[in-house]
Amino acid sequence: MTQFAALRHLPRPSDRRIALHVSPAAEKSLRAGHPWLYESSIIKQSHAALPGDLAVIYDKKNRFLAVGLYDPVSPIRVKVLHAGKPVNINQDWFYEQLTEAADVREPLLATQTNGYRLIHGENDKLPGLIIDRYADTYVVKIYTAAWLPHLQAVLAALIELETPERIVLRLNRALQADNIGLRDGQIVYGEPLTQPIIFYENGLKFAADVVQGHKTGFFFDQRDNRSLVAQHAAGKHVLDVFAYSGGFSVYAASGGAKSVLSLDVSAPALAAAQHNMALNQQHPAVARATHEVIAADAFDSMTRLHQERRRFEMVIVDPPSFAKSSAEFDRALAAYARLVRLALPLVHKNGILVIASCSSHVSSEAFFRTITDTAQQQSRPIREIARTGHALDHPIGFLEGAYLKCLFAQV
Ligand code: SAH
Prior knowledge:
alpha/beta; Rossmann fold; Transcription Regulator spoIIAA; 3 domains; about 30% helix
């Protein structure tokens, strides 16, 4: 197996597997393929174990049910890797999972796209693990220490399958705070990075900061929605609220928008948006569109734009997640309603509102109803053009895996 100097200090997978017996309800849910086993469902455990030790779950007749990564600090005590027949979890097994996932993404390769999500966590049977491809650079993001003993095997499998030039490791917030001897954004394989990575999406060029950018540097999940924006943008003045690095803005310009205004609180994100617009000047439509940015709070700026009587034929609103837990559900819906109240006055008659939610704790029904009801209350009823969800590289493998919903509506 390839040796990774930066990872030499990580624990090795333990030889000793944990044996678990679980409640009848958990047994049923695991049999149905659910990737999580909660601590509260464990009836019997063979011994205390460390993060990432393999846990074998047996059914009530003592037959193998599933195997997963033990995670002693999480209420989701086991992240299930496989259910059904016994398997060995090693580089070969990871290679098989990566191959399966790569096959699903195959159609994207025919669309001038080399930036996409290769592994989408539980939805690709690798809970708590994300792998995003940015041209020849791959970004591996882990959300639990349970992956640490298996990281070398995963990376070796990734190298075997995809021959990347470079692998960047990203850590979630909890892991950044832990003392694991790894840095968020560390290059664990290949040459150091001196500038953003350039990749293609539907023939458009983007630069992403995979070391410090949000998530892994870009929001691939909105690819199809960006395409739909391009299809509707011709001749329009477009406002892109929560623009980040300008994904929607560039697509709007490529679709023939007259002007694009990108709004975000982050000045560096808007600098990236301007850079991305500049990268696509060889497209005549992008070259023709005028581009303006506003670095300020979205709520304040939308109010101000209204006072200045600015109007747009298309307004895109793609906010960050408003509900990190189910307790924040009501607050999140209130925030979406507020955004709709601020956005509608900015939309010309017969213009288009595009609004998305990436909060997994807000159901699509609740989200779409809030948007429709709020528009009704504002006496700006909307006619739906499309409701969309996940792009192909963000498959939905289980109920909790669905998070993205987006509404295209004529106002
Ligand atoms: N639409 C983007 C992704 C948006 S991510 C894309 O397709 O790539 C959410 C963005 O909201 C981030 O860039 C963040 O800087 C911005 N943001 C968060 N809170 C904000 C606020 N109050 N006002 C303006 N922007 C905000």
